[in-house]
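hey all, quick one before standup. I had two proteins in the batch that finished overnight and I want to keep them in one place so we stop losing track of which output belongs to which input. First protein below, input sequence then structure tokens straight from the run.
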Amino acid sequence: MDTYIAYFDETGDDGANTASSDVFVLTSIYMNTSVWQDNFDKFKSFRKEIKNKYGLHVSEEMHTKHFVRDKGMYRTYGWTIDQRREILTLFIKEIASLDMKVINVIIDKNKIHTEDYQVLENALTYNIQRIENDSEGKWKFIIISDKGRIAPMRKTARKIRAYNPVQSHFGGVSNNPIKGLVEDIMEKDSEESYFIQICDFISYFVNLYYKNVLKNEALPRRVEQVIDTNFLKRTMATFESGDILNKRASRNKYGLVIYPL
């Protein structure tokens, strides 16, 4: 039986309040271990090209939010707005060319009406459920996530291995425990993982797409200097054309899983 590797990262705060963020996006990318090395080599070669053309070191973490807003160490490169836009476009095209699948779970905290809603736990459950569904029992998978939220993520993963309630089409709830997940969720520093950085990249753009395109909210001022609504639409269209989005994850055009309903 084949084994897949799934990587997770998020955009937004997982607290139920909207003080720091009103939307939480949990993104997973997953691939067969048989293509992992090819994906890694391809992306590393791409990063070398970016280094040669723009100076961004191959081992430098791509933290998308800070990059777009020109914060922290990114300011030392002195890129123009056009150059940052060019770099983002190249990243989008390269990510869309990888042999993998992507699931995005969006928790819109403005729709939460209960004080005990568990944002991270629900987002993780919905995401794992869809990886499991995609496997159709034909392969197992392990999960690697960025540091910081490992304890509650492991607790949730252990729980749904034993009890994973799913609404039945015939009414009521049935227990469909997760069977494909191997081992506890493991952690890895995003600085040391291109694939976690790719999750961060996709998650950031999905967050902006949801708020700006689907909810018609204005982009933050420092963001709209670099990207606009059309850029966000082209980004999602590029991901779709690359066939990396698991569109079976939901009825949304791009397979975006949005909760609460």
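OK second protein, same deal, sequence then tokens:
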Amino acid sequence: MEQYKKEFIEFMVDCNVLKFGEFTLKSGRKSPFFMNAGAYVTGSQLKRLGEYYAKAIYDNYGSDFDVLFGPAYKGIPLSVATSIAFSTLYNKEIRYCSNRKEAKDHGDVGILLGSDLKDGDRVVIIEDVTTSGKSIEETFPILQAQANVDVVGLMVSLNRQERGKTQQNALAEIREIYGIETGAIVTMEEVVEHLYNKPYNGRVLIDDQMKGALDAYYAQYGAK
């Protein structure tokens, strides 16, 4: 496994973003782990996070795109931090854009925050994690209603490697349904490989009991 992936896994743990236990996901699934990008709260954390995303996006999609779209609410700081990192690392000005949950009818009116979307814009969608593809189902109509844009791809920080509405991996399903590329900084398989029965900061996050819970979860929801 690449060193930067190991560093990113430990970064998620250090920031209390990746946790193990019992959680109910937005999809309704009961999961033994949870990934919450809302726990990145300091300037240094967001700086590093933006750099990880920028590198992953550059490696997967290059720099030939115009807008980073972060769906509300967690996608807002992700799109901002990553657009800053892109400017710093690659000297490329990428506009950031996010949606509001409710359209604003005064001042900066409309449903969008940040940049407007224009016909022909090439867009990369940025999210924390995709479990069932539900969020993309909500995001695509928003983009299509604003302008005739070309969605280059989707980048998430963690590929949970579980099925969406079919037996496919949720990211693979998104590729098939929407015809866009998908990528992740790390996969859950890589997380388990790095943390299983290995002490980190004085504790073992994935011991045999947790590994059993993960195996049971993937027996039910894992992608074939």
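Flagging for whoever picks this up: The CA atoms of residues 50 and 82 lie 4 Å apart. The radius of gyration is 18 Å.
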